[in-house]
Amino acid sequence: MMVSVWRYSHLLFAIASSVFLLVASITGVILAVEPISNKMEPYSVPGADELSLAQTLGHINENYGEVLAVMRDRNGFVSVTAIVEGQNQTFYIDPFTGEKLGDLIHKKPIFQFATNLHRSLFLKSTGRFLIGLASFLLILISISGIVLIAKRQGGYKQFFAPVVRENFSQYHHVVYARWALIPLLILALTGVYLSLLRFDVIPNSNVSLQVDFDSIQEEPVKEYTQFDLFKNTPLSELRELEYPFSEFVEDYYIIRLKDREVYLNQITGEVLAEEKYPALQVMTSWARVLHTGEGSIIWSIVLGFGSLAIPFLTVTGFIVYFKRPKTKIKNAYGKHESEYMVLVGTEGGTTLQFAQELHKQLLAAGKKSHLALMNAYGHFKKMEHLVVVTATYGQGEAPASAEKFIERVGKHRQRQAFDFSVVGFGSTAYPNFCQFAYEAHEALNDSANSTALQEVFTVNDRSFEAFNNWSDTWSKEVGVTLHLEKPKSTLGPKPESTFKVIDKIELPEDDTFLLSLKNLNGSRPVSGDLLSVIPAEGARERLYSIGKVNDTLVISIRRHEKGLCSNYLHQLAQGEKLTARVVDNRNFHFPKQAKKTVFIATGTGIGPFLGMIQENVKKREIHLYWGARKREAFNLYKDYIETARREGKLTAFKTAYSRENGEKTYVQHLVRQDKTLFLDVLKSKGCIMICGSIAMQKEVLRELQVLSKEHLGKDLSHYQNRKQIKMDCY
Length: 730
Ligand SMILES: Cc1cc2nc3c(=O)[nH]c(=O)nc-3n(C[C@H](O)[C@H](O)[C@H](O)COP(=O)(O)O)c2cc1C
Fold this sequence. Notes:
The chain is of the alpha/beta class. The chain has five domains: 3-39 and 110-204 and 285-322; 42-104 and 208-277, no CATH class; 340-486, Flavodoxin domain (Rossmann fold, 3-Layer(aba) Sandwich), CATH 3.40.50.360; 496-587, Beta Barrel (Elongation Factor Tu (Ef-tu), domain 3); 590-729, Nucleotide-binding domain of ferredoxin-NADP reductase (FNR) module (Rossmann fold), CATH 3.40.50. Helix content is 38%, strand content 22%. The strands form four sheets. Strands 4-3-2-1-5-6-7-8 form an eight-stranded antiparallel sheet, covered by helices on one side. Strands 18-17-21-15-16-20-19 form a seven-stranded antiparallel sheet. α4 packs across α5 and α10 runs parallel beside α11. Flavin mononucleotide binds next to α9 and β12.
């Protein structure tokens, strides 16, 4: 079934049941405290469960003249109903002595109130029905939730693999749901069962034993302590024992054990009738225990947390859904009259915003453009240029609005020639970066009358800058002039900080420089976070990876001849101030737990690693592989690397130069060369971090994939899902 169907069902069930579930969950949390508070009462006597019934009854009978019944509850507390001083009384006793320990626990008013609200909302049968229905919907919510998590994680095997964090609500909704789903499903199933029982849909089945009074014997007379059943049954097996009503042989002991009911001749000790409880009765008993947590502190706590998760999951779930950018598609031109078709594959809505901006600017440039979802692919009579802008989901799968795209491309032939271009939106934090965009490209390439204008263009983490770069080249090729504006909701409310330039080290021969900045206020970045700089009023933001060295932020920048931002940063003199925002990039932080880490960088990609190495105070094993064109490029980082080596913070440093005399080495060659180390890092739960160009990232991943498959028998995604491979490439 399609993801969208699961998602909408999940949402629909949640909306339909949310109010009732919220009431049931809050009262459920209160009720989870009741069994815990009961269990903590001092009526449990250690070792008493091993006593036989004969011993227990002996102790009880010594203390009380007329005993009517003995009970053992799920907490293991033993109580007696007896006539004491002419009164019928029930109280807890010590099975070793028979002495009274205390009066029966009375339900506290708060628990009584919560129970009534929980069971029937104070609406009697109607309330019971509504709560039963909400429990049923909770089963459906849990099942659809399990499927959705499996889909987003890339399969059931990956169910508990780390979740990529996109934002607070999305991350915590998935992380908590994974743990809460099991108790929630149990609560929901048992809740429905108990409701069905209440409405007699499931019959209440009890044992009904028959005694053959004609064959009752009065001999041989035995002392009750000598009855086989009493001698051989431990107290732990008892639920309830009713004493005979009179001394006549026709009255007998009624004994309810955990698994059966037995009637016992009070004179001879002979078993008069016996029956195991029917399966339905056992199920009912289990349903009660599992639903209430009675008798188990641990299970009550689990249920309490399960109930607590409901309001949390409801709120975060609704935030995830309702915070999605909602952009309606409006078209001035129909699909058969437009020469430009912009098709979008989105799930969260952000890709649609980018596509919409492109569509808007095409219209502004006087072109007939039509915007639609990828699932709407069909025969477009006048299409000359097709742009597909698509996100990727799951394990490199199509987003909901593009699930039928490939099939439809196969089905619908365009009769006129058209060119196409595919832009993939994705995140390098996921194993199959922009995978679906490549598949969409393939499908279009194979279709009739199509010409690929370019290779797939990938955009990491909704970078407007990257999208704009693509738009520049594409618009030149098709001959339009476009000026895209950044979609508002992708800006995010990041606070600005002021930074003072402390130092600038240059390497003129390589056009790169290192800028050291001091944060004068605002956020506290970590190495791997990004610095967002807007070089001029109205200009686009540029992102630079931050290395944090001794409270100073170091960014490594390549200067481009006409680069607005790199030149702006380059002209900053020591002491000058710069306003910029820090962007949290938590998928690229140093893995503090990993014993071994390998950093792979090319060019200025080394920047964040300079900080991470410096922070390695525990002197964990770190290997740095760095690639550049020429050897002299290293001079910029020489001091940092040599100090780190001296201080024992960097275990090994290897370089790959691609334009040195005769030598043409790339970092991916070093990966192959040092495969033992890479395999060891992957096997020992270490981490490989990659920073630099996308081209280098692809090559390195290809090498790692081969190693992983050939030597470890696993797809590389296995390690990527466990966050053992982190990437920040551009
Ligand atoms: C559950 C989930 C799975 C994802 N899987 C991938 C993936 O396999 N490859 C990838 O490049 N990006 C993946 N992404 C990232 C999205 O493609 C990216 O965030 C995109 O910008 C979302 O666009 P949208 O808001 O239009 O749906 C995934 C995101 C989520 C939430």
